[in-house]
Amino acid sequence: MGEIQLRLSLAIFTVILLIGGTKSEEKYQYLIKEFVVPLDHFSFLSNATFSIRYLYNDSFVRDKSNARTPILFYTGNEGDIELFAQNTGFLWEEAERKHALVIFAEHRYYGKSLPFGKSTFNTSMPEHLAYFTVEQTLEDYAMLITFLRNGTERPVVTFGGSYGGMLAAWFRMKYPHLAIGALAASAPILQFPGITDCDIFNRIVTSVFENAYNSNCTVNIAKSWRVFETLGGTEAGKKQISDAFNLCSPIKNDADLKKFLDYVEEIYSNLAMVNYPYNSSFLAPLPAFPVRQVCFYLKDLHTTDADLLHTMASALAVYTNFTGTTKCLDLSAASNADESGWNIQTCNQMVMPFCSNGTETMFRPSTWNFNEFSEKCYKDYRLTPKPYDIILRYGGKNIDAATNIIFSNGLLDPWSGGGVLQAPNDKIHIIILPEGAHHLDLRRSDPADPPSVRDARNKESAIIARWIEEF
To answer: Are 78 and 341 in contact (CB under 8 A)?
Structure first.
């Protein structure tokens, strides 16, 4: 359970991320550029470099010679930067309103910004992972912003969602002379050991499903684990599950069963994050309010194992085969989220504990065991996690000295449990979206947006305008 949750690209992490939207959405245009950065910003002995990508659009800038033109800078997170650029509509809308330069910077080790090319993630070369840190990434962005300002005093506002939102906030904290403010949407900067309960994420996911239709939904989901595990104990039962879910590769052994159960758990988390009020299509094509659609199938209690098994298959097909065009369910199919990179980050600094007590949530019981997690990280990547590193560097919940950061969180977003929900001073702005899923406010404006999301965007726009004016 914990391993699967840690693989979630905060976008997914992210993810999940900002991808998807209505079919009528136009594509945003930009130039793709490269910027050379040091491999190791903090060494005076090595001159090694590589290039990160960034996306550039100055079509909204009225006077390109104006040294005070704002720069709206997206701090790229765990994935290809073009995915974020096409699905962070609020930044583009703000750029048009404020006649700003648009920049989307790609995070090192993601997309095409690979410091060692095809061998970047070669497990036989663990030394390649030594420069895969938040600090190196923020330094990349600091150098790029300095280059873009070109000796001028252009006001820069950082934007980001999920892990990208964490980076936007941390950049403002570390480089206040380079960024006048930050919009950190759905940024769980408190989702670290000793600060936030490890079961908060799963409790919020459960609440989202419980309130989507009726409480029978989560009761059925909680019962389904026993059904899966009981059936998975026999050859005939394994075939029943494989047939009901139309698996491309039938379940043959306990490892296959675990992979299936982990996959199902990840679906629930993904659905809660992308529970948007309109069709979207990142990890999978989904209808509006997909959690409600899933829970429609589970609105009645099911008493027999066979009945519950087939009902669960129908319910989860909302996620796995909404279009009806999927020939079979491939549990190994790649998604847009870059899990390989994120898994590595969770094994150095981004140590976020997840657990479930099995009574207050609809998930299987699981515990957080740092020693086991650490051993797996060393086995996979030769990395030893530092669980308190981020807290040491950025303060955890002690951010009283920070200013000019907007922390927005949707209460339907499971990552809000690790978000900043109370302002430590009058220079930190807290915006709560009762009807918002994962960084819904960063997405393009849509007629289906609930009132709280429209109101949040209006407030964010006004605050950013004030920062620019005061600068």
So the answer is: yes
- Crossing angle of the two packed helices 290-297 and 200-210, in degrees rounded to 10: 70
What DSSP string runs through 192-243?
STTTS-TTHHHHHHHHHHHTTS-THHHHHHHHHHHHHHHHTTSHHHHHHHHH
For residues 150 and 131, give the distance between their C-alpha atoms in angstroms, rounded to a whole number: 27
Q: Which residues are catalytic?
A: 162, 413, 438
Give yes or no for a cis peptide into 227 (omega within 30° of 0): no
Helix (H, G, I), strand (E, B) or coil at 58: coil
The radius of gyration computed from the CA coordinates of the chain, to the nearest angstrom, equals 22
What's the pLDDT at 5? Answer: 43
Mean pLDDT by runs of 10 across the 471 residues of the chain is: 44 40 63 98 96 98 91 96 94 98 98 96 94 98 97 96 98 98 98 96 97 93 96 96 96 96 95 94 86 96 93 96 92 64 95 91 95 96 96 96 98 97 97 96 96 97 97 91
* Pairwise CA distance, residues 298 & 243, whole Å: 20
Kindly give the pairing relationship between strand 285-286 and strand 280-281: antiparallel
Give me the pLDDT at residue 7, please.
40
pLDDT of amino acid 9: 44
The first and second tokens of residue 366, run together, are 């699981």
Q: How far apart are CA 71 and CA 107, in angstroms?
A: 18
CB 445 within 8 A of CB 89: yes
- pLDDT at residue 8 in the model: 47
Separation between Cα atoms, residue 224 and residue 152, nearest integer Å = 60
Structure tokens at 82: 């073009």
> Which stretches of 20-112 are DSSP H helices?
81-86, 89-98
Give the residue carrying structure tokens 């590589």: 50
